[in-house]
User: What shape does this take?
Amino acid sequence: MKVTILNGSPKGDLSVTLQYAEFIKKKFPQNRYTTFNIAQKIKKIEAEPAEFKKIMTSVKESDAVIWAFPLYYMLVHGSYKRFIELIFERKAGVAFKNKHTITLSTSIKFFDNTAHDYMHAICDDLQMQYVGYFSASMSDLKKNEKQKQLTLFAKSFFKAVNNNEQFSQSYSPINYKQIKYNPAKPKPVIDNSLYKIIILSAGIKPKSNLENLINYFCGQFTKDIERIDLSKEDIKTGCLGCCHCGYDNTCIMENKDGYVNLFKSRIQSADIIIVADQIHDRYLSSKWKTFLDRSFFNTHKPSLLNKQIGFLISGPYSQTGGTLQTTLQGWCEFQKAGNIGVVTDEQNSSKTTDNLIRDFAARASWGLQNQYITTDTFLRVGGFKIFRDEVYCALQIIFQADHTYYKKNGYYDFP
Ligand SMILES: Cc1cc2nc3c(=O)[nH]c(=O)nc-3n(C[C@H](O)[C@H](O)[C@H](O)COP(=O)(O)O)c2cc1C
Assistant: This one.
C-alpha cells in the first residue's frame, strides 16, 4: 500500500507530530510511505508549480493519505491552511477523491476537536473516505498504552483501506451563490472621538461585498477608522513554532519583520477590533490564520483583554459547519473580550444587511462604554483549566512568562 503523509508542522523533520507518523511507519513497514513537509515548505510549494504537482502526483498514486498536523490556535497552522486553499484554488482536489484518510494531531488538547472537525469537513469536501482521527498529547508516544492505541488506530485504518470500507460524510457540500450587497448611504451617528476602532482585514477586492460591509460599518461613525490590511503589512513568515517567546514573550522574528510592532502599537492600542474577512473553504483566510498564529508570542495569556471584538464576514459563514463559529467565540472568551458578534453578506436584501451592520456598530460602542464582557462558556472554562494545569506542570519550564503571570493574576485556582 502506498501512503502519503502531509506534515502540517512548521518545524518540518523536527516536528513532534511527525514522530507519531514515524511510529506508524515502524509498526507497519510493509507499506510505502512518502512524506511532505507542507507547512515548512509552503512558500516553495506555492511559488513552484512543480513542487505542488509532486505532492498531488504522490496523493493521486497513493491508496491512503495521512493528514498529520500540530494544533495551532484551535485549528491547523496558517501555512497548512494555505496549502488547503491551494488545492481548491488550483482545482487539484480530484487527486484526493475516494482516498481513505485519517487526521493525526499532537497538541495540549486545547480545541483539538475544532481542528479535527475542520479537517474532517475538508476531507468531505475533497470527497475522501474519512476513517477517523487520532488526537495525541505531545508526550503520549512515551506511554505504552498510547503506543498500543495508536497501533490499533493505524491497524484499523489500513484494514479500512484494504477492504475498501465506506464511510458516510458528516458535512454537506457548501452550496453558495453570492448575493450582491449594495449598501445605502450611511448616516454617521456614533461619536467615536474618544476611542479607537480598527478594521483588520486580509486583502480586500475593490467594490467587493467585503469592502461594502466595511465601508457601511465605518460610515456609522463620526471619525475616520483605521484600516489595517494584513496583505500589505510586513509579515514575512508564519509562526515558526520555536517557542522562543515562552521565556519573556519576545518573538524570535521581532526585529526581522513588522508583526510584533504591528500587534503592539496598532492592534493592542485599539478599543474595538473588527475582523473583516472572506470565507475560504470552511474558515477565514490563511492570511488571517497566520496573523492569529503569530500572536502566540503572547503565549497563554490574554493579549486583547477588555476589548470589544466583532466580525464582518463575506461568504457562506452559516454553512461552514460550526468550527469557525466556535473558534471565533473561543478566541473572544479566551481574550476576556466583549464579543459583538458576526455580520455576514448572506442576507437576501441589502437593506437587511444595512440594518444588521447599523445595530452591530451601535452594540460595539455600547459594549465599550458599558465595559460589557461576554460570559464564559465551557470553551474558556474548560480551556483555561487545561492551560492552568499545563503551565503549572509540563509547560512551565519553557513558558516562564506565563507562570509568572498566572501566579500574579490568581490563575492557579486549583480546588
Ligand atoms: C503558535 C502555537 C499555537 C498553538 N496552538 C495550540 C492550540 O490551539 N491548542 C493546543 O492544544 N496546542 C497548541 N499548540 C501546541 C502544539 O500543537 C504542540 O506543541 C504540538 O505538539 C507541536 O507539534 P509539532 O512539533 O509537530 O509542531 C500551539 C503551539 C504553538 C507554537
User: Anything to note?
Assistant: The two ends are 51 Å apart (CA to CA). The chain has a mean pLDDT of 98. The longest helix spans residues 350-369.
